[in-house]
Specification:
The protein is elongated, with a radius of gyration of 27 Å. It folds into two domains: 35 residues; 254 residues, Rossmann fold. With 304 residues, it is an alpha/beta fold. It has a six-stranded mixed beta sheet, with helices on both faces. Helix 5 links the parallel strand 4 and strand 5. The longest helix has 29 residues. Helices cover 40% and strands 13% of the residues.
Length: 304
């Protein structure tokens, strides 16, 4: 059957057959609708709520911080509310929150100043994973969450009132936990088995309890943590050498900061692994409650 035959497909397509016209209309209007629905549902399925991982030793004030901002999310006018009474966490908890519309978002810097959406002060949804700070639960419930694809940053809460002595067990425990956290972030970036390169996560060291008389100032908290982490780093490095892991490749992967001879500083991680670390003081309880966490919320907003 040739193309010129009255029964050929080409002849029927141009013959004005109502069936052919109906099929053409169905394809013309139905295909774009189907494609739109497919990509729209795919986008909603892959879109996840921005999440922050909350770490820190027991008693630092992690759960109190979450309780406070949760109350502020439900009652935006209650700026100076006290956190609800808390108890030691045993398992991780994912808490959905709303960032006040008055706090600027980091993504706003890519918008035009004439963008009308900037004038709409709508709250921004996000979530925080509150993790237990007990030493036996950190690996299972805390550090294992660092591979969460929705993570936008890590918040490490420290009790600045117990860091006044480098010989205190609380100071050593805080530094060891922070060392392990930063090392896990470093290994996350240098994971050669990952198919897709991972972006560096910013870290906020929230120096809590700044309202107490015994609390170290923010600058002193930063210096104390850096010096204590250097002690842990040197001790761990000697332990690796003792078991034969003295090659440059192993040392770079297993020693915080890449195994160089320079003393550890937070700046070193930013230069070598693009991991920015900010130390910001605040207070969850006391006279500064509510206002005392404002700068932490601004840091969260800068990551969104």
């Amino acid at each position: 059957m040739g193309w010129s035959s009255p029964d050929s497909i080409l002849t029927r397509l141009f013959s004005g057959d109502p069936l052919i016209i109906a099929i053409a209309l169905l394809i013309t209007f139905g295909l774009p609708v189907c494609l739109h629905l497919y990509f729209y549902t795919q986008a909603n399925r892959t879109k996840s709520t921005p999440t922050f991982l909350l770490l820190g030793p027991s008693g630092a004030g992690k759960t109190s911080f979450v309780s406070l901002i949760q109350k502020q999310s439900s009652n935006p006018e209650e700026k100076e509310s006290e956190p609800s009474p808390t108890r030691t966490s045993q398992v991780k908890t994912n808490v959905s929150l709303l960032l006040p519309g008055t706090i600027p978002l980091g993504s706003n810097k890519y918008r035009s100043q004439n963008d009308a959406s900037l004038k709409d002060k709508h709250p921004t949804p996000y979530s925080i994973i509150d993790t237990p700070g007990h030493g036996k639960l950190r690996l299972e419930h805390a550090l294992s969450q660092l591979n969460n694809p929705a993570l936008r940053g890590v918040i490490f809460v420290v009790d600045s009132s117990v860091l006044d002595s480098s010989d205190s067990s609380a100071s050593r425990d805080t530094a060891a936990y922070l060392h392990d956290t930063l090392l896990a972030l470093q290994r996350r970036l240098s994971d050669k088995g990952s198919k897709k390169p991972k972006a560096a996560l910013p870290v906020l060291i929230a120096a809590n309890k700044q309202d107490l008389f015994t609390a170290l100032p923010t600058g002193a908290v930063k210096d104390r943590l850096q010096s204590e982490i250097e002690r842990v780093r040197v001790s761990r490095s000697k332990g690796l050498s003792a078991v034969g892991q003295d090659t440059d490749e192993d040392e770079g992967d297993d020693v915080l900061g890449g195994g160089g001879e320079d003393k550890f500083t937070f700046k070193l991680l930013e230069e070598e692994y693009d991991t920015k670390i900010d130390v910001i003081g605040g207070a969850v309880k006391g006279e500064e409650a509510g206002k005392g966490v404002q700068r932490w919320l601004e840091w969260i907003g800068g990551c969104l």
